[in-house]
Structures are given as structure tokens and as C-alpha cells.
Amino acid sequence: MTAATSIAATVSTNLWLGGRQVRAESGATFPVYDPSSEQIVAHVADATAEDGLKALGLAHRYQSAWAATPARSRAEILRCAFELVCRRADDFAEIITLEMGKTLAESHAEVAYGAEFLRWFSEEAVRLHGRYGTAPGGNGRIVVSKIPVGPVLAITPWNFPLAMGTRKIAPALAAGCTIIVKPAEETPMTMLMLGQVFADAGLPEGVLSILPTSRAAALTAPLINDSRLRKLTFTGSTEVGKVLVGESAHRLLRTSMELGGNAPFVVFDDADIDAAVDGAIAAKMRNGGQACTAANRLHVQRGVIGEFTDKLTTRVAAMIAGPGDSPTTSIGPLINADQREMVAELVDDATARGARIRTGGYRVDGPGYFYAPTVLDQIPRHARLLREEIFGPVAAVVGFDTEEDGIEAANDTEYGLAAYFYTQDLDRALRVADSLHSGMVGVNRGVISDAAAPFGGINQSGFGREGGIEGIGEYLDTKYIAL
Ligand code: ADP
Q1: Tell me, what's the pLDDT at 250?
Q2: How far apart are CA 344 and CA 100, in angstroms?
Q3: Is there an atom of ligand 1 within 6 Å of 240 CB?
Q4: What is the pLDDT of residue 218?
Q5: pLDDT confidence of 4, banded at 50, 70, 90?
Q6: Is 292 part of the annotated catalytic residue set?
Q7: The pLDDT value given to residue 183
Q8: Of the residues 100, 155, 232, which should be mutated to test ligand 1's pocket, given the most ligand atoms within 8 Å of the CB?
């Protein structure tokens, strides 16, 4: 048993049903793979629709008790969970690297980021303010209070197995909602490890269920159709998000959708080029490019495109793709064979249309779903990778002439999650930040996520915000009391 697989043996592979470990109703399990070795690392309980309905029964039964639990107590449980995740950071980092593939350094960064939502929302739990006012007509008082919307169903993706969970679970619990989490089938172990943290932190019975499954829709559709469920929060592809909004529509179920992106990364002539290259590496290569905020298109003004692309190419060519737990690795594998084929297909499409490969552009021999860190330039306008989310370590550099051209190119997408740009001119920074159509803008920054800031998109990137003071609002209803 290697060090990596031994961490898997420490995680319970049962379901968490209202805070207790149980086997799946069917007794079935499904395999979890290490994308670096393509080996099975565990067999995890495979939740069925019956398990889902049991979890919803508990979430419904305990909703009012949890809502009535003093905010201070809810906050303290979250704070305790934060401290336990920090104390077990090495274990979390190892399990994330094992089932998702990113480097241990990146996994540690995710653990710190993911834990931060627990701390942030433990602090927000005690600040759920309403308001009080006098009706303008002088005929009454207006009292507005906030009440938990719960029970909640959270569906999370594989790319940040811990953080995508904590940024839903923490605000839901802080708001007083019970919650059922369905983690991605590729990465259920991290969430199961988090289940133990909440049990150890003293979360009461019935409040949290974690249900891995190999058949997502079979589990979630009956829950979405059940009148006891009051809220759906989803992070994943735009395609699946639309299906879920459709399923939710006939019940008018409240939904939050954090969907795909196609982030532009714009470098103006007056930028600090070395800083822009650092930012591009972070925005593009972090998580192997497998982030919805990943820079998908690098738009660089003609005066600096040569210098920028040369420096970027040197940096990317020096990156080593390999297993996440190896100290020499700078970039881990893609999550699975399909994802790697999609990346290869987009690169092949671009080169077939005339794009130039500056470095990379090939699959690295396995085992493991590795793809060489890649820089492409001279990208033709109709290349698919300018329109579609690459979700891989491929930097596509495109030139532009004027500021207006740069903004127009950046906004030429139906998505609107993140956008980045580099300039040293303050007036331009304000002008461009105002002009970019996206929920989040990084100015001279390649990484923008922060538990204290509202994360989310517009247009085809979805709606709702996670983190910040806005994040908890997704789990609250507003009640007006006329006095
Ligand atoms: P990705 O491309 O990142 O895998 P998906 O949107 O396919 O994104 O998956 C994100 C999450 O949504 C995962 O937990 C997955 O199991 C779940 N999922 C996928 N399809 C459905 C569906 N039809 N109903 C409910 N959940 C789904």
C-alpha cells in the first residue's frame, strides 16, 4: 500500500445519512480512481433514490430544530469544523490529490481556501440582520426578517472537491438550513472526510447528509420533485445547470447556478509584462486549467504580444506534468480520459485551422491522464477553443490592436463568470473593469477567489453568489411583517 492509497483507507466509504454512517440501501458501491495512475483507490457506497429520500426525510424533520438553534451555536460548530479541517490539512490535501490529481501544493491551497468558508460563515451566522422602518403613509411599521429557506440540495463538481462543498455547506448551515450534498462521482472521498469533521464538530443529527452516487440524476430528480426540498444549489457545467433549472421550474424551486466560464485574460501594452506572465500562469495553469474561472483566452495587445508570448512559453515549457504527490510535478493529470480527449480535440481543431504550437500540444504517455502544458498562438477567429471552455493546461494567445478591440474581443462570449486584465494605467483600469461583461474581474490579479468576496457569474455562467456577505442570502428568504 502506498502512502497515497493508505489515506484512502482512513476514509469511511459509507454514506453519511443525517450525520450517521450507513451503507447504501442497495448495498452497491462504485469505484473511485486515481487519475495519475488510473488505479482504483476505493469503492464507495452508491446512493440510490431511496437513500436520497431518506436523507430528505431527515433534512425536513430536523429543519425547524436547526433553524431554531441559536446562531451562536451554529457559528461555533462551523468554527470548530474550520479548526478541524486546518488540523487535518495534510489528510485533506492527500485525499484531494489522490482522487482529483492536482499537486499537493495546490491541494493544500484548496484546503486553506475551502476551510476559509467555514470560518467566514461562522462569522456571518451571527449577523443575519433584518430591518425595521416606519411606513411612509404613517399607518404602520415595516419589519423585515430573514428566515432559512431549507432544506437544501447541493450538487458539487470534482475540480475543487473540498471548497465547492464548503462554500455551499457553510452558508447553508450558518443560515439555519439542513442540507444534502451530492458530491461528484469522481471525487466523493474528500466530502466523506468532511462528513467526519462535522460529526466531530458536534453537528446535530439530521442536519447534514452526504450521498455519493454513480447515477446522479436518479438520485437528484426525485428530490427536486419533492415538495419538502426548498433549495437547489449547483456548481458544474452550463449544460447540466440548464437541465436542473428545467427540472426545478415546475415547483419554482429556488436555485443557485454556478456554471461554466470562458474567461478572457487581457494584457494591454502598458502592463507590467512579468507580472502579467505570472498572472497568466496562475489564471491558466492552476488546477491544470480545470477551473471555471480559468483564463480560456489570452488577448494580448500587439505592442507586447511577442515579449509576453515568449516569456509565457519559456515558463510553460519548464512545467512538468506528473503525479500530484511527486515533488518535481508542477501540473497534475486531467480528471479522466474523456476530459483529456476534449482538450486534445480543441488543440487539434485550432492547429488544423492554422494555430501555431509554441510548446506542448500532445498527450503525455500514461498511465495517468496527462496532457503537456501548452501554449498556442496565431489562433484563427473560428477556432473552437475561443468559444468553448478548454478545462485543460492550454494557453491560447490572440492579438488585438486598440483598447476597444481588446474589450470587444474579451466580451465576445455568452459566458460571464470571470475576466482578467493587466494595465498600469489607473484610468484604463477603471474604464475596462466597467466595460467587461462578467460577474468578477481581476485587475492585475490572476487569482481572484476569496471566501469574503461574492463569487458568481452572469449570462450563461449562471446566477447567485457564493461567499461574501451575499453568499448567505442564497439560503435565506425574506419575510415582511406589517405592524
Ligand atoms: P463536469 O463537466 O464538471 O463534470 P457536470 O455538470 O457534468 O460537470 O457535473 C457536475 C455535478 O453535477 C456532478 O456532481 C455530477 O454528478 C452532477 N450531475 C451531472 N449530471 C446531472 C444530472 N442530470 N442531474 C443531477 N446531477 C448531475
Answers
A1: 92
A2: 19
A3: yes
A4: 98
A5: low
A6: yes
A7: 98
A8: 155
CB 121 within 8 A of CB 170: yes
Q: Looking at residue 272, what DSSP letter applies?
A: -
184 lines ligand 1 (CB under 6 A): yes
Q: Find, among 481, 313, 316, 299, the residue nearest to 408 by Cα.
A: 299
**Contacts by 428-433, CB closer than 8 A, 24 or more apart:** 428/268, 428/270, 428/403, 431/403, 432/266, 432/268, 432/403, 432/406, 432/407
Task: Count each helix (H run) and each strand (E run) in the chain, helices first.
Answer: 14, 20
- Find the length of the chain: 483
Q: Is the pLDDT of residue 99 over 70?
A: yes
Longest CA–CA separation in the chain, Å: 76
Instruction: Kindly report, residue by residue over 399-421, the tens digit of the pLDDT.
Output: 999 999 999 999 999 999 999 99
86 CA from centroid of ligand 1 (Å): 28
Question: From the CB of 220, is ligand 1 less than 6 Å away?
Answer: yes
Q: Ligand 1: does its nearest atom lie under 6 Å from the Cβ of 291?
A: no
Cβ partners under 8 Å of residue 203, min gap 6: 19, 77, 81, 173
Range 367-395 average pLDDT = 96
Residue pLDDT, tens place only, 295-345? 999 999 999 999 999 999 999 999 999 999 999 999 999 999 999 999 999
**Ligand 1 atom 18, closest CA:** 216
**Ligand 1 centroid from CA 238, angstroms:** 10
Q: Which residues of 110-133 are buried (b: 16+ CB within 10 A; e: fewer)?
A: bbbbbbbbbbbbbebbeebeeeee
Catalytic residue among 94, 116, 292, 389: 292
Ligand 1: residue whose CA is nearest its atom 7: 237
Any ligand 1 atom below 6 A from CB of 156: yes
- The catalytic position among 94, 124, 258, 403 is 258
Residue 80 catalytic?
Answer: no
Give the span between the Cα atoms of 363 and 384, in whole angstroms: 19
- Any atom of ligand 1 within 6 Å of the Cβ of 217: yes
pLDDT digits (tens, 9 = 90+) for 455-478: 999 999 999 999 999 999 999 999
- pTM: predicted TM-score of the whole model, two decimal places: 0.97
User: What is the model's pLDDT at position 2?
Assistant: 56
* pLDDT value for 268: 98
In this predicted structure, the answer to whether residue 5 has a pLDDT above a threshold of 80 is no
H or E element at residue 174: helix 163-175
136: burial class by Cβ within 10 Å (0-12, 13-18, 19+)?
A: exposed
Helix, strand or coil, per DSSP, at residue 29: strand
